[in-house]
Amino acid sequence: MTERLLVLTRHGESEWNLKNLFTGWKDPGLTPKGIEEAKTAGRGLKALGLGFDVAFTSALTRAQHTLKLILDEIGQPGLETIRDFRLNERDYGDLSGLNKAETAAKYGDEQVHIWRRSYDVPPPGGESLKDTVARVLPYYVETILPRVMRGERVLVAAHGNSLRALIMVLDHLDDKTIPSLELKTGVPLVYRLNADTTVASKQVLEG
């Protein structure tokens, strides 16, 4: 039986997550907590007896480091890994590097909430979630999904918003629901797909 395994993991806590900064395409590293989150994710996958045939990650350090720590924990440090900017976090444009609370004080809570949690309103100079979906989904359909459907076991280490784009399709969420979906750092989502690419099962590996 073909397994069709797809595991999605948001990176561990980054230095800018800790400081409550808009990160986007900026490239801070993981905090000690983030490193431990990634190792815990790897141990959880290993405890399930899961191994992988290929891994995908973004062009950003925090996702790549998370992936490396997971692969070390499951004993696959040399796994084929494909890095692509299309899995990058949403680009927050002019907000990148700014403190979220200070930005809300400057522009107002309502405006910042719209930038963060609307589907199709981009921050100044940046991407909306809709823009991010338009970047991520074609890559998933053309490059990642075919390998899953061939029976390869696929691991993706990426970001909150690039993963929202995938979960939107996998979990059949609409543009009103997906912006408010919270993804915890370093928590793997284990999907097994049916032959028609729909979800057969989903497991959230917390703790």
From TrEMBL:
<feature type="binding site">
    <location>
        <begin position="89"/>
        <end position="92"/>
    </location>
    <ligand>
        <name>substrate</name>
    </ligand>
</feature>
<comment type="function">
    <text>Catalyzes the interconversion of 2-phosphoglycerate and 3-phosphoglycerate.</text>
</comment>
<feature type="binding site">
    <location>
        <begin position="23"/>
        <end position="24"/>
    </location>
    <ligand>
        <name>substrate</name>
    </ligand>
</feature>
<feature type="active site" description="Proton donor/acceptor">
    <location>
        <position position="89"/>
    </location>
</feature>
<protein>
    <recommendedName>
        <fullName>2,3-bisphosphoglycerate-dependent phosphoglycerate mutase</fullName>
        <ecNumber>5.4.2.11</ecNumber>
    </recommendedName>
</protein>
<feature type="active site" description="Tele-phosphohistidine intermediate">
    <location>
        <position position="11"/>
    </location>
</feature>
<dbReference type="GO" id="GO:0006096">
    <property type="term" value="P:glycolytic process"/>
</dbReference>
<dbReference type="GO" id="GO:0004619">
    <property type="term" value="F:phosphoglycerate mutase activity"/>
</dbReference>
<comment type="subunit">
    <text>Homodimer.</text>
</comment>
<comment type="pathway">
    <text>Carbohydrate degradation; glycolysis; pyruvate from D-glyceraldehyde 3-phosphate: step 3/5.</text>
</comment>
<keyword id="KW-0312">Gluconeogenesis</keyword>
<keyword id="KW-0413">Isomerase</keyword>
<dbReference type="InterPro" id="IPR005952">
    <property type="entry name" value="Phosphogly_mut1"/>
</dbReference>
<feature type="binding site">
    <location>
        <begin position="160"/>
        <end position="161"/>
    </location>
    <ligand>
        <name>substrate</name>
    </ligand>
</feature>
<feature type="binding site">
    <location>
        <position position="100"/>
    </location>
    <ligand>
        <name>substrate</name>
    </ligand>
</feature>
<dbReference type="InterPro" id="IPR029033">
    <property type="entry name" value="His_PPase_superfam"/>
</dbReference>
<dbReference type="InterPro" id="IPR001345">
    <property type="entry name" value="PG/BPGM_mutase_AS"/>
</dbReference>
<comment type="similarity">
    <text>Belongs to the phosphoglycerate mutase family. BPG-dependent PGAM subfamily.</text>
</comment>
<feature type="binding site">
    <location>
        <begin position="10"/>
        <end position="17"/>
    </location>
    <ligand>
        <name>substrate</name>
    </ligand>
</feature>
<feature type="site" description="Transition state stabilizer">
    <location>
        <position position="159"/>
    </location>
</feature>
<feature type="binding site">
    <location>
        <begin position="116"/>
        <end position="117"/>
    </location>
    <ligand>
        <name>substrate</name>
    </ligand>
</feature>
<dbReference type="GO" id="GO:0006094">
    <property type="term" value="P:gluconeogenesis"/>
</dbReference>
<keyword id="KW-0324">Glycolysis</keyword>
<dbReference type="Pfam" id="PF00300">
    <property type="entry name" value="His_Phos_1"/>
</dbReference>
<dbReference type="InterPro" id="IPR013078">
    <property type="entry name" value="His_Pase_superF_clade-1"/>
</dbReference>
<feature type="binding site">
    <location>
        <position position="62"/>
    </location>
    <ligand>
        <name>substrate</name>
    </ligand>
</feature>
